[in-house]
Automatic annotation (TrEMBL):
Broad class of enzyme this protein falls into: translocase
Substrates-to-products reaction catalysed: glutathione(out) + ATP + H2O = glutathione(in) + ADP + phosphate + H(+)
Protein name: Glutathione import ATP-binding protein GsiA
Residue ranges that the Swiss-Prot or TrEMBL entry lists as coiled coil: none
Keyword Cell membrane: yes
Free-text function comment from the UniProt entry: Part of the ABC transporter complex GsiABCD involved in glutathione import. Responsible for energy coupling to the transport system.
Binding partners and assembly: The complex is composed of two ATP-binding proteins (GsiA), two transmembrane proteins (GsiC and GsiD) and a solute-binding protein (GsiB).
Location (main, coarse): membrane
Family statement: Belongs to the ABC transporter superfamily. Glutathione importer (TC 3.A.1.5.11) family.
Family annotation (InterPro entries): AAA+_ATPase, ABC_transp_ATP-bind, ABC_transporter-like_ATP-bd, ABC_transporter-like_CS, P-loop_NTPase
Location(s) in or outside the cell: Cell inner membrane; Membrane
Keywords, ordered alphabetically: ATP-binding, Cell inner membrane, Cell membrane, Membrane, Nucleotide-binding, Translocase, Transport
CDD domains: ABC_NikE_OppD_transporters
Length: 246
């Protein structure tokens, strides 16, 4: 079954068009990466799916349900986003407990205490972190909280915007392994944005290379591992990409 269907997606900010006719399909349980240099439009695609880019044309569907423009609470129950900067995405004056409580209240879910304890354990944090503030956590711990916040409403799809790029190299492997385990155990579907092709090899099944707001190549991760990319720009990205922190 197709989990994410994007067809002819054009996203604009005012008079500036950022993406052009972007089309991808991600199967349920799959992990798909959008790769490219800064400004290629890859994060803009995620923002459109998440409802953070109001000016767009085309088709966005999650499990066959069309995405409306703007914020949609029902849609958020199925699809959640993890942002690049875990410190910037967490409210500095809210404890971990309050941060995790908020989506539960929005979605009208009960058993708050049990859900919070369980999700913290699932992302590798024990109960002593529950009443800490973001500044009292390391970068890796903050990103674990951000992942917990996304998962606590039990979505089927996670949008991952450079989920390890703001972390120390020594911590990146821990978060990547966590994401790999969570996908396997929860049957999640991932759409990830990154500029690091070796990370794609570790975490993803397929990828699309973006340049100038357009997809220039779509390939299986196996072809990436073998260096069998067809587009000249894709091969250049692979040559310049850093080794994976895994």
């Amino acid at each position: 079954m197709t989990a994410i269907h994007i067809e002819n997606l054009d996203v604009s900010y005012g008079e500036t068009q950022i993406t052009h006719n972007v089309s991808i399909d991600v199967e349920e349980g799959g992990s798909f990466a959008l790769v490219g240099e800064s400004g290629s439009g890859k994060s803009t695609v995620l923002k459109a799916i998440a409802g953070l880019a109001p000016e767009w044309r085309g088709t966005i569907e999650i499990f066959g349900k069309a995405r409306s423009h703007g914020i949609d609470a029902d849609f958020a129950r199925t699809c959640q986003m993890v942002f690049q900067d875990p410190y910037g995405s967490l409210h500095p004056r809210k404890t971990v407990d309050a941060t995790l409580m908020e989506p539960l209240n929005i979605q009208g879910l009960s058993d708050h205490n049990e859900r919070i304890v369980a999700i913290l354990k699932d992302v590798g944090l024990d109960n002593r972190f529950r009443f800490r503030y973001p500044h009292q956590l390391s970068g890796g711990q903050r990103q674990r909280v951000a992942i917990a916040r996304a998962l606590i409403v039990e979505p089927k799809v996670l949008l991952l915007d450079e989920p390890t790029s703001a972390l120390d190299v020594s911590v990146q492997a821990e978060i990547l392994n966590l994401l790999k385990r969570l996908r396997r155990e929860r049957g999640l579907t991932y759409l990830m944005v990154t500029h690091n092709l070796p990370i794609v090899s570790f975490l993803c099944d397929r990828l699309a290379v973006m340049r100038g707001g357009r997809i220039v190549e779509t390939a299986d991760a196996e072809n990436l591992k073998k260096g069998h990319l067809q587009n000249e720009y894709s091969r250049e990205l692979l040559r310049l990409s850093a080794p994976p922190a895994v």
